[in-house]
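Bench notes, afternoon.
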Amino acid sequence: MTTRHRACDDFRQTSASTRRSWVDAPLTRRRLIAGGLGATLAVYAAKAMPLTRMLEAAEAQAATAPNAPTLVSVFLPGGVDLLDTLVPRAGYGAYADLRKGLKLPEVPALGSTGLGLHPALSAGARGGVKGLFEAGKVGFMPGIDYANPDLSHFHSRHFWETGLITQDQVPGWLGRWLDRRGGADNPFQGVTIGSTLSPVLRSSRVPVAAVTSPDDTQFWIRDTWGEAFERGVATWGRLADGGSGKPGPAAVRASTKLAMQVSERLAPYRSDEEKGFYPLKPAVAYPDFEANGLARSLSQLAGLLSLPLGVRVAAVEAEGDFDTHDNQPRELDQGLRQVSEALAAFQADIEARGIADRVLTLVWSEFGRRPEGNESQGTDHGAGGVAWVQGTRARSGILTEYPSLGRLDRDGNLAVTVDFRRVYASLLEQWLGSDAGEVIPGAAGFGRLQLIA
């Protein structure tokens, strides 16, 4: 019986709505929503703090270290297939035997690597991800996973997010880094682009944030404008400034004041169509945001990185579904095409803004796929996936051993050639300038990869 990815209960279980209570449960923290009537900034903090202080802390942290390196985590949900992403040209016969009607035709060589790249990864500005590789700005890591991999979306994603092979509810690996190296007052130091905090950035002691766009941090009342709107905003202001000192009214007052402060402090970064003012306008052309949600998110992130907010780590999740149990040729092509277009535009954008040398991007997925195709023109959950680093300072090339199709494990999966925690330890030390042992238990035992040129 064949499992179809649209019916993959394990994959659905990893959605934000079903994971939120599990992810947030162990650390009881104050979640400050600057939601009001229209603002969309969520601040996750260990204690209550005035927003004015937060924004001042962000500007101060940025001024103290304006060129501090930033690490961007881009997650591709579902388990990206290695063999069709980086096609083994040198072992094409064995690949074709395993994939039969599913296989890609022999793709052009990727330099002298002995591999080919999925054609969809040539889509986008300057030749997409392939163009970035040829320009020396991408380092691929095939065979990435962990020993004795658990092929559950839910568990594997949690392991990657925390940097720990445990089902315990713990902070994210970059959240733990912020707990040790971040500031006590600046939530923008760790920012998720979206409405929900990425578990990668979940901290226990320092504030972090989830934000969509400064353009959304303004008041609006549905179907209301003119004098009625002005009266509504005035009423909101009175709620913020006065009222009873009892706990209930005081909480309402604090919430409304927070929302107004968010709106006021981020106002200089909002667009004004009438005046033709677009302070966060991308420096380059992006794909259509309606068709490519990752491009929209990365565009917003590029704008935020250009502001004096002290962003040190950031997280973005692609909207695509790489759980290709069926119809992989079409599904993978569509997903990789959107990723390539979005990442290429993001890299061009940060280069045009003059901030590219301080931004490194890690692209990852929770596992790979089985080498042998299934009966639904797809592939099932497997080991030995693919990740890559991207940026002007990324080490380019094929950075890890490609799994041999002649040496599958006892379950018929690709061998794991590099533990993802080795990558994390290398990024912590080589990019973020920290002792990896502070964040990754047993870091000394994983070795290191040279990831920075």
